[in-house]
UniProtKB/TrEMBL annotation:
GO terms for cellular component: extracellular region; host cell. SUPFAM superfamilies: Protein kinase-like (PK-like) (SSF56112). It is found in: Host cell; Secreted. Residues 5-105 form the Crinkler effector protein N-terminal domain. The keyword Secreted applies. Coiled coil: none annotated. This is Crinkler effector protein N-terminal domain-containing protein.
């Protein structure tokens, strides 16, 4: 019976104090040692095949100079330990108990696509609200990131909230907003360690290797490198390898680091491009076409961190889930702030764990032209105790003539009272549901902020803007709109946007059956306000209408008169 050998191991890229010990029979091989190391580092190394770990035998004193000595070594792949080597041959005598004996490096992921081809690989295109199909993509039109930034052309880069496309982002927000969320001690201690580490002034990104190890511990996932053939690469990623079809490597999170904020650009922007480069690779085609490719995008610059999320629909959509958070350790009495930062990282760990499980365990349709990624993930609403489930068919455009049962929209505010009042008078489509996106039980896990879901019956027809784009509307039609306006006025309500695009002429019923739609701004007169971002196009509004101004009954009257 062979004796156990005790080996101190160190993973390249982690802090020096993360050295760990492996006890293993000396008769075992390096292949067995790799399995033991992977098992020791669960769950961070769950997605890493043990045989892909690279090991080197060293004898480096674990003292104050350890990190410097490690950094001075050049660990060549060709010099790594062979899997068949026996530990008894490598260590004929018990190794020094005050030294590190094995250095470990995780495998790198290599992408096959150079950045010049990235835009041609995405094959995505956006419409005003959602997306077009892959086949309608114009390859000469760059796939702009929809993050709210725009160039001189001022084409819109606004997009629906990320959490509509995948609930993991709503989960992240729910954890952030949960006042009873308990923080594990290791998260608090690792957060403190990160704050101290990022407070040190570093002039080179390569000097921030300890930060990466701490971020890895905070996220609870294993870091790997990803590289394109032209050698462009993100600083590091958190991947997950699927074990069932499609057998692909998904991206849970991508991280970019800068030595300081303002040096060599914004790391969140660079990380956004790294996110696109990763998912554009042909090796991710099946996952890309059967999901919206949700990933977390993390930028670190000196003592600052920002967490974003990304999805692929018609265009890449990237939105900030946090602002830039100060990580510097600058106050003697600072526990409350440290706990606040720890809560952010713990929320990220929990959500990233859910995303990891989503990619690992979900069944994805093995078809190349799936439409799943184009639509929100919300597919049901409640009517009393009954759950009504629905399937998205296509984005609703103004000229849409398809017969549909319902129309689903999402809004931060909605004039439910005004809509139901006019619907009761047959002056608006029936409102089937207005309320939160989740049940009270689910709201604990998923937070959609101020978003509400609106479900109404679908009425086939056209808008007044489509039928009478430049002409004055017929008197019969104007009388219907005036009747709707009077109903609202009697209840001290306003619509706020009684213009041609918001008056529907049904295919069945014609002008006399006209309906008012779009109650986003409706509510109590002189209490509800116009939105902050109101179009400034000349001639669009009546006198008195202004951004964030109170909506008055006289505005509705003036809009009806102008029809």
């Amino acid at each position: 019976m062979s004796e156990n050998i005790e080996l101190f191991c160190y993973v390249i890229g982690t802090p020096a104090n993360d050295v760990f010990v492996i006890q293993i029979p000396s008769s075992r091989s390096i292949a067995h040692l790799k399995v033991s190391i992977r098992d020791k580092l669960k769950p961070r190394f769950d997605n890493i095949p043990a045989n892909e770990l690279l090991l080197w035998k060293v004898s480096i004193a674990l003292d104050d100079n350890f990190q410097q000595n490690i950094d001075s070594h050049n660990f060549e792949d060709t010099e790594s330990l062979l899997a068949v080597k026996r530990l008894s041959d490598l260590f004929p005598q018990p190794p020094n108990p005050e030294h590190v004996h094995i250095v470990v490096r995780r495998p790198q992921l290599v992408s096959a696509v150079p950045p010049a081809q990235v835009q041609n690989q995405i094959n995505l295109r956006v419409t005003n609200n959602f997306v077009l199909d892959d086949e309608q993509y114009d390859e000469e039109n760059p796939a702009a990131i929809h993050d709210g930034r725009y160039g001189t052309h001022r084409n819109t880069t606004l997009a629906p909230p990320l959490e509509l496309y995948h609930p993991v982002f709503a989960e992240f927000k729910a954890h952030l907003n949960n006042p009873t969320l308990e923080l594990p001690p290791d998260v608090v201690l690792n957060t403190m360690e990160l704050m101290v580490a990022t407070s040190e002034i570093k002039t080179l990104e390569s000097e921030r290797i300890n930060v990466r190890g701490i971020v890895e511990k905070l996220c609870g996932l294993a870091i790997m490198k990803s590289e394109n053939k032209d050698e462009t690469k993100p600083d590091y990623i958190f991947p997950v390898t699927r074990n069932s079809p499609p057998i692909e490597v998904a991206l849970v999170a991508v991280v970019e680091e800068k030595s300081e904020l303002g040096v060599n650009g914004d790391p969140t922007v660079q990380a956004s491009f790294s996110y696109i480069h990763y998912w554009a690779d042909p090796s991710h085609q099946l996952l890309r076409t059967s999901s919206c490719c949700p990933s977390f995008i993390i930028g670190i610059a000196g003592p600052w961190v920002s967490i974003c999320g990304g999805v692929l629909t018609g265009h890449p959509i990237v939105q900030r889930l946090t602002d830039y958070i100060w990580l510097g350790h600058s106050r003697i009495i600072d526990e409350a702030y440290t706990l606040r930062v720890a809560k952010i990282f713990y929320s990220l760990r929990l959500a990233a764990g859910s995303l990891y499980a989503y990619y690992l365990n979900s069944e994805f349709p093995l078809i190349k032209k799936s439409r799943i990624r184009f639509f929100p993930s919300i597919t049901s609403y409640k009517v009393g105790v009954q759950t009504v489930r629905f399937e998205y068919l296509r984005p609703l455009e103004p000229e849409d003539a398809d017969d549909k049962l319902i129309v689903v929209k999402f809004a931060e505010r909605y004039g439910e009272q005004a809509h139901r009042l006019l619907a009761a008078e047959k002056l608006a489509p029936e409102l089937l549901y207005f309320g939160p996106l989740t049940s009270p039980q689910e709201a604990v896990k998923y937070s959609y902020g101020n978003l509400y879901m609106v479900v109404m019956e679908y009425i086939e027809g056209c808008t007044v803007q489509q039928k009478f784009p430049t002409n004055t509307i017929p008197l019969e039609l104007k009388k219907v709109v005036q009747k709707a306006r009077e109903c609202l006025s009697k209840a001290s309500l306003v619509h706020g946007d009684l213009r041609k695009p918001n008056i529907l002429i049904p295919k069945k019923g014609g002008i006399e059956g006209a309906l008012i739609i779009d109650f986003d701004w409706a509510g109590e007169a002189n209490k509800v306000r116009y939105p902050l971002h109101l179009s400034s196009a000349p001639g669009l509004w009546v006198d008195g209408v202004e951004p964030y101004g109170l909506i008055q009954a006289v505005h509705d009257d003036a809009m009806v008169d102008r029809l």
